[in-house]
Batch of 3 targets.
Target 1
Amino acid sequence: MIYLLPAILSIALGVLTLKAILKDRLPGALLVFFLGSTLGLGLSGFLTFTSFILFNKLLTPFVIVCHLGALGYLGMILKKSGHLDFTGLVRSIRRQDILALCAIAALVIPMILFTRLYPYGGWDAWGFWNTKARFLFLGGTNWTGMFDPALWRVQTSYPFLLPLINVWFWSFGTSATYAVPAAMTCIIPFLTAGLLYSLLMEMTKKPWAILAPVWIFTNMFTIQLAASQYSDLLLGLFLLAAVAMFILAQTKQDNAFLILTGLFLGMMAFTKVDGTALAVLTLTAASVFTLCNTPPSTVRRQAMVFLLTAATVAATPLLVFLLAYAPANKHIFTNGLFSPDHPTSVARLTTVLIMSGQEFINLRWSGLWLVLGLMFILARPHQSLRPALRLIPTILGSYFLVCLITYTINTAYPVAWWIDSSFNRIVLALIPTVTLWAFLSHEK
Amino acid sequence: MLLPLRQKILGGLIILLVGVQISQTTLTFSKIWPLKRPTAFIFAGQKFASLAPLLKGQKYAGYYTDTNVDEGRALLELLQAQHILAPLILDPENLDHRYVIINCVNLPRTIEKFKAMGARPVAATPSGILLVERPEFGP
């Protein structure tokens, strides 16, 4: 029960930050809850990292004071500006919202059952993420031991937002209990499902929006990957939030949403190396579309300032990590273009193309990708490629290209094993965003 | 509210897939639950847990195994040992540390090897994990 406290603090931090950015333009109550919770989790992870940067160890009182200080500051500026009132938002909760929340909560049941069978998660959970969390929580000033070259098998050069979030929750207990990462692996799919539903409801006002998260999270393979305590679905959650905020910025012509886009991109970049690549691609594409789609020039200038400033601020933890802590890890990258011992080849490229293509028709997804493809075929092209949605295919196409190039050029790993063990998780992270795109393609 | 035909088709297809998925998920859980539940908390790293108090204050410990540490079960046990013993850093590439954890198949041969190196035994776990000390690398 003690772990409800950090959850409440994180949610409050996220919701107040949302209110401070959007003021009286908050969307519906459910979207505020899920968006605020997502934002709050990321911000809590960042604030926890601040303790390590400033004091070279975890100082729980400092992290809690940071949270309370941020809440107090946000509350004060909202009260001064007359935007601290949430009664309208609470009154806007409808019976439909409660029912949807119950349905989304029900989707978490198989996740909980899965964690009862695998309480320590999958290989990458006890091998990397939770080991890093233990270094952070138990290491004192030796937390930087997790970057030691002897630990190259623990992916020392990876960013680590999920471990920081777990450490934030552990801070309220007395031990690095397995229960926190196990609970977090149920919370992240809950937030993803809820965010996807509430975004579709906000944008389409159609109750069939509930089909999207139900469809995704009743698939056994998705349940298995989502509940294995990996960072991939957290990456997917931040991507969904960032892309959706960009779409809302374009459709509502409200630059405040671009601040949220930038914040979520920064969080995504600090989640995994894949997230860093995806954040750079998304930010680049979002900047181009903002420049192209936003008249007049004064509004366009403001839009770019909001987007780039928020992204830069949110990317600060990543930049600090890269500049001050991240070690080189020669074990995980071999440039096959120049390596005489492990050269790349056309055969490797062919294998990459075939195996990655096969992933989308693999039966373990229960035809998800085939039906998503059908949705795009049946949608009118001018609907699925309308200006507000063009960001999504742009970042998907460029991201796949980066993945294909990486798999082909980096010959540190046998290609078949590498794709087989990692590409499905890359695909998992993209499912919520692609599903959002597919459903919106059928809306005017 | 009248939906276009294509949306009705897609909606029906998705509902059908949801039904199939719920059935598959229920079936999968009913199969694996009785098999996996009794062994859920069995974690190979636990056999190293009793060494943690003995290694308190140490930053590094060597880790020796006579199988290929980068494959299969050996890699699993190394990573799970690392997880359990964190923030201690296990160093399989360098045994020049004060303490070395030994996790071997052929224990007698390994014991002879470390005796020859001047190591002295510190502890042994019921599951056959040894902790030895190499005083020449001590403080």
Target 2
Amino acid sequence: MDDLSVTLQFSGGAELLFDNKKLHVVQLKSKEWTIADLLIWIKENLLKERPELFLQDKSVRPGILVLVNDVDWELLNTVNYKIQPNDRIVFISTLHGG
Amino acid sequence: MCSVNDAGDIEDLNNTGLLSNFKYKVLAEKCNKCKDEKPCVILRKKDAYCKSCFLTSTVHKFKALLGKHKLIKDGDKVLVYYHGGHSGTALLHFLRTNLDLNSPKKLRFIPVCLFIEKHYFLSREERIDNLRRIFNYMRTFDIPIYFTSLTDYCKNGFSENTLLTKNFEELELDNKEGEFMKDLFEKSESLANDVQTINIRKLLISCAKKLKCKFIFTPELATDIASQLLVNTALGRGSHIPLDTGFCDTRNEHVTILRPLRVFDIKELALYNHFCNLDAIMLQTDLPKSQKSIQNLIENFVIDLQTNFPATVTTVLKTGDKLSMKKNKNENRICYICQSPIEVACQQLTTDEAIKYSHQISTQPELVGGDILKDNFGTVIDTKTCFSCSRIEQFLISTSTEKV
Amino acid sequence: MSECSRKCGSTAVLKRPKTGDKLCKECFFEAFENEIHFTITRAKLFRPGSTVAVAASGGKDSTVLAYVLKELNRKYKYNLKFILLSIDEGITGYRDDSLETVKQNRDDYEMPLKIMSYKDLYGWTMDEIVTEIGRKNNCTFCGVFRRQALDRGAHLLKVDYLATGHNADDIAETVLMNILRGDLARLSRCTSIITDSADGIPRVKPLKYAYEKEIVMYAYFKKLVYFSTECIFSPNAYRGHARVLLKDLEKINPSIIMNIIHSGESIKVNETSKMPTLQNCTRCGYVSSQDICKACILLEGLNTGEPKLGIGKSSKVKKSLENRAKTCCGGTSQCNSLSST
């Protein structure tokens, strides 16, 4: 199996937890990846600070929207979705101020 | 003891299932609207839409709400209260893409934006950074923006001469002015928040008048409205619910405040912004959200309850929509602090009287055995404040006298 | 050691949750009792010479209510006669003990006692109902039956008033709950201190402005006997949320309880909103917003092996009843429909 190439996008203030970088292209080691697995990977490799502001239990914190290729992850079984090569996963925070 | 004391709670038994047991309806195969495309968005756990239906229905919802009330005439100026976030950006985009004075199908009023600087808990650099970002952001929408300072307004005794400028650098951001507000917050967050809400409203109206705007748009979302309704209840402002949470706030005879986003939730607008490739500005937040204020407690309560019972917010909104202001046959005295009508007692014994009696009986033993019917226990006819603002009056007086 | 706020010279032993004043025991008793006297007098709750049924569950609210009413009646010469009215739902263990407490109240306060049981009124105990329908909707049955049982009891006793022990916390919680559920009809009525029953016996809430915490403290310091346990069957889910919210708000500032009651009193429902009109149940005569009252519907369901009949939206219930009416024998007592008690 090849490595899985995935584009991650953070916005709505979530980028503040990731070095203020909105776009991350990542390579995941070959295996079956679900979003649940990806979240663990993100925690260990990308999250620069305050994991509790992004993650909760095995999922994202309530108030963080997730889209896979512009489709609401609630239509894709949320954390159980199996990631495909070149998927674009967007995390939009609705928690930050205004 | 059993807590079911009134004719059973029958209808909402449908509502008692926890969402963890909730199964998404058929993991929607087709868009609810066009029944053709595959859905890419699901709202409130049950409404699935494809991208184009989602975008059109979101814009339609906005226009429909404005159209339903038919208040704004062609050419009227509207002050748009902007304070960042997804709601602010979506509102600006709705306006930008649907306004055209020359086109009969489009909205035909003139928007003007206002940003109220009130982040006295941030550092000077952070505050200027916020202002600069907003200034630049507004250029992309081609809508004029004005800036004003809340502390300035309060410090000047709510003067009409408070600075209102297009140039944000003219604002005075000396943190010392925030000291008074900080004291208030330390004493009672809930009351301080209430005071701040009232002052912001006053300032909005003052600026609208100066800019000759007949209307103000404020960006409250459905969750904000539901929270505000409960906050009003908890503060004793139940009688003001229609004004504080309805579509219109008509307390001022010259300027009407409208809440055009009250039917939306934040997920809708965040996704709308995303699909329109809009980057919302997230301002530096100031006060960390503590649980010590009624407002934060209730906001968290509503959000949590909504997660398990997705009909919560809409139900509370509907409750509010069915309430109206009491019409007093005699005069309509207005509270000088919040500009709302002062409640007129319509029962033999009011809560206000009961509270005043409690305070007195706890400190004056000589009242025992007195003629209760005759004694005037605080039903002051000449009162200048509503029930809730009388507490604010005492609060403000006691805080300022402590400072001296 | 603090001094009592009423400057009586004694040391304060408690801080009033309602006002924050520090009071000695005697001054607290006086303040607590006089507030209830104030409520009764100002709200004109009772006409002198009347008979009042006091809803007695054996719990703290009804025990304190009965005790204080008796005290105030004596002290301020209301000239009232009291009867304790208690409901036996037929829940083994729970009700047996609380009924013992009510009997104790009867003896201690020298008030006559009348016990109405679900078994007598409806033919079913709660234990039997739960066996039949399980624990999901049992609170619905109990709540509906209890309310009717109290009204029927008051009617039987031919009293002038029915006094219940609803306290400030209960009322505030009900306001919140009715907002959350969107129940405008109840929202507009729940803060009324006198609720007119269409059959003529008004229900009054003398403890409307008494804080639950103070009721507990009063009972404790006066060494009043009462019974307190949670009902063994599951409590209603939505009310639980309202209760948690109220308790959290109270922690921030106890005056919020009064604020909420004031808000409930001050709201006005649109004239155009659909509010149920009251009529009499065609089967048992009890007051209801429908042709057939909720109790009769629930009973019909129980008696015909379709216990879900009364549960759910009233529009669906109506439809279901209409379907049943098609099979009804038209009053010739040949079908299973409930006959009036």
Target 3
Amino acid sequence: MRLSLVLAVLLWLIVILIDVLQLLAIRSDLDLGIRAEIPRLIEALFYVFIVIYYRFKISNVESGNFVDLLWRVFATGLVTTIISLIFRLFYSSIDGTALANNEFLITALYDINKALISVFLISTFTVWKRLILYQKSKRLVFYWNTFEAGLMLSILFNLTGYNLQSHLWFQILFVALGGMSIVLSGNLKWVAYLNFKQKWKSILLILLIIIYIFYFFSYLYTPPEESLAFLQDIDSLFLIVLFTFLTFYSIFSLLVILFNLPTSSVFEQKMEEAINFQRLSQSIQQGENEDEIFDVLLTSSMSAVYADAGWIEINSHDKESKFIAKHISREKINQVKEHTHRAKSRTVMKNPFSSDKDSERVLITLKKSTYRSVFIVPITVKSNVVGFMYLLNEVTDGFNKEMINIINTFASQASVSVENFRLMGEAIENERYKEELNIAKSVQRALLPEQLDHNDAFQIHAFTEAAAEVGGDYYDTFKLSDTKFAIVIGDVSGKGTSAAFHMSQMKGIFQSLVQLDLSPKEFLIHANTALSKCLERTSFITLTYYIIDTEKREIEYARAGHCPTLYYDKQKKEADFFQNKGLGLGIMRNDSYKNFIEVNKISFNKEDILVLYTDGISEATNSEKDEFGFERMKSLLEKNAHYDPVMIQKVFISKLYEFCERKDLDDDYTIVVIKFK
Amino acid sequence: MLTIDKQNENHFLLIHVSGEADASSSIHLDKAIRDAMDEGMPQILIDCTNLNYISSAGLGVFMSYIEEINQKSISFIIFGLSEKVLKVFGILGLDQLLTIKKDKEEAIETLNAV
């Protein structure tokens, strides 16, 4: 950028030098051998560098700051004019002296002036380009590029040495480029974005710029007074097209701005409305609360309709109505409300989406009040009217159709914002609950044993899955001695959170009672007593309690209403369910519970298998409402009895999923497999 | 879905229960029995012929009235249980605490015998 400026200055110095030298040569009848094209070529290069320089310089200015751009043009013009005037002053001061007739001085000064003027023209051109291409379309860009390319080529055209007055080609090209510049001058969209003050500034600046352009034109092309010609030879197509373009665009802009002045306040109002609208829709993102949204609504609505006062009244069921008021006291609000109730002159605008009387918008004309017109807009959230906005105007018929439309848009946008705000609150709340449930899940997971107590006499493996985050299935083990183990499986009625709480109570009861080394029957009686005091009336827990004695190779067990245990007898090569009586815990909440418990004892042999499970497995249903069922489980165990507990569990669960054709079962399901050695 | 239908017959109240008694629908079953109890009905028959499924919550409803039935000496008879539903009652041990009969005739016979 700087380089192109330095080069341009250097080039122009060369031009001056050549001009002066040529003058010298003519004086002394010498031929320097410099061809006429060379200074023209250097001049052309100068233009190119200046164009490049301004291209970069102007592109740095912030887009949309039009007055600033115009100010730059004005400043460049001012500097150029001042220098030019100084030269003129200097010239008139030496008028009559020999120096005044010094051709070298005249040439040099003329050249410097011309350079400055072309700098001004090019800088103005670049700014005008920015203005034209504000809000560009593809077609406009194409058109502009064609024009700019034509203009750049016209720099080269200067090399021909043709002039406007005597060459037809020059005239044709001038008319063509001039015509294009007039068409391009129609692009004045930027004017619309100026506010009233900016428009006045722009008018002033453009007016001065036009004066500069005319002054420079006359400086370059007006012949001395004694000359008969109307204009001097115009030898640069580039400069003359620039002059034409700049003049047209300046005049067009000036006129358009001038005619736009009276309507600019309307445009500003519209812009403000758009901004307010945006504020309303964005207000929730900035973490504002509902009151702030209503505040924005009231402020924007009041400024949009030039209301003198207004308030928003938000009704709530449990609390007193909330008021957000502007330029009006509570006392006055009550007065106005009373007036509106009595007013006869009211225009009701029905809400097309609701037949509710509350959702109607009402326009009221008051007679005996400071405020002559009142506009009442209901504020709805999720199709419920939550409040009303009152807008007051001191003149009658203060609200026109246009204003009413804007207010409606504002009100509905505010409703959307409030709705979104509430939804967001709910979403955050839900997220929190989810988080809590996840914590509950991991807490519950920890209630189930990670390591299952056992010795070399048997292998044990467990698998459990809850339908919701937390469930009511329970299993646990306890080492009573080196050869005696307590194992329990249970299922809490219901599912989800309430079941999970009861399951944790069961865990506590098991862990305390098991240490007493009770018989299975005693254990169940105590557990029933304990649970009777803490389970609600409709809840119960089913449980089976086993004591495995590996020394005696015996299993003693009692069933409290839990699913019958599946047992595989290796010798018979048969699986079957234990049939014995029992009653769920918490059903019989008195001493008679013991009458319902039966204790059984069996001895086990090598490779016998004990399968404990919950009804989530046996009662799992498929789409035809068939149950997975006892028969299926029996044959499944018989077929897979040669596997180890882990594999048996895997086969059971995969067959279960296959049967149900899905993995998300409706109930919690647990399976514990024990295989004896 | 659970449908509850109440019917007053001669000297007893007949409650028809049909559909599926799961955690949410059992509330209706509970309300029907509660109302009957509060009205002081001495003889209540529950017709479960069309009850396809009962969850632990549904069982919990029946279970919660056992004590009250015994205390107030109410004749509370369930009949028409399908094999599947009866099995669920059996596993839990509720069959030992509630009077369960095969069909309406048997239920009425039991009522008359008292």
